[in-house]
Automatic annotation (TrEMBL):
This is Dolichyldiphosphatase. The lineage of its organism: Eukaryota, Metazoa, Ecdysozoa, Arthropoda, Chelicerata. SMART domains: acidPPc. Keywords: Endoplasmic reticulum, Hydrolase, Membrane, Transmembrane, Transmembrane helix. The gene is DOLPP1. Residues 48-168 form the Phosphatidic acid phosphatase type 2/haloperoxidase domain.
């Protein structure tokens, strides 16, 4: 029996509970794509858009390599064969690209709070470790569920890390200096794209700006009613 295996659809291969849980982790790339789309739609931040473009490029490279190498997925002890190629692993490459880029973003690019206090940045290291652990679990799930060999997921993981390093370097040193120029374009203003690179704490900035604007409008409303 030949069956097509979509890149982001988890299929139940193993009958045990652990296998079912690992199958659910295969949906992580899909969840991350939805998160990207949500952030881009509601925040319109140029760096988020650039990060997403990097993941799309990463996926394109994976597709090209798969259809160039044409290495089949493992089929030992299985009744279901897959028509898609397995080298390199798409899930491993996606997750390690995401995990590596996020680690660089959190530990190098993101400036939040007072860096002189170690506890102020402790959450960065915690989130980084959790993301790396998630990438490792998703990678292992592809082997446990017999979608890929060790070599296929290893190549995918290494390639994802390598591409993330390159894309972060390009974003940090080549694209970020262009963000103010891009944000000033008429089309960017029409789409409400913004550059938040120089704002150390975007959440606090948005909160204080919203509070100040709300108080200003409230005072104007009270003034109009008193006249």
């Amino acid at each position: 029996m030949v069956m097509s295996n979509a890149s982001f659809i988890a299929e139940e291969v193993s009958r045990d509970l652990f296998g079912k849980l690992l199958a659910l982790t295969s949906l992580c790339p899909l969840a991350l794509v939805i998160a990207f789309a949500t952030l881009i739609l509601f925040r319109r931040d140029l760096h988020t858009i650039t990060f997403f473009c990097g993941t799309v490029l990463n996926e394109a490279i994976n597709w090209i390599l798969k259809h160039t190498i044409k290495e089949l997925r493992p089929c030992h002890g299985r009744e279901i064969l897959f028509s898609e190629y397995g080298m390199p692993s798409n899930h491993a490459q996606f997750m390690w690209f995401f995990a590596t880029y996020m680690a660089f973003f959190l530990l190098i690019r993101l400036h939040h709070g007072n860096s002189s206090y170690p506890l102020e940045n402790a959450w960065k290291y915690i989130v980084t470790v959790l993301i790396i652990c998630l990438a490792a679990v998703v990678t292992y799930s592809r082997i446990y569920l017999q979608y890929h060999t060790w070599y296929q997921v290893l190549c995918g993981a290494v390639l994802g890390i390598f591409l993330a390093c390159i894309w972060f370097f390009i974003t940090q040193f080549m694209l970020t200096p262009l963000f103010p120029i891009i944000a000033a374009w008429p089309i960017s203003e029409f789409l409400m794209l913004r550059d938040t690179t120089l704002i150390p704490n975007v959440m606090w900035f948005e909160y204080t700006s919203h509070r100040a604007e709300s108080r200003t409008r409230q005072r104007k409303l009270v003034s109009m009613k008193s006249q």
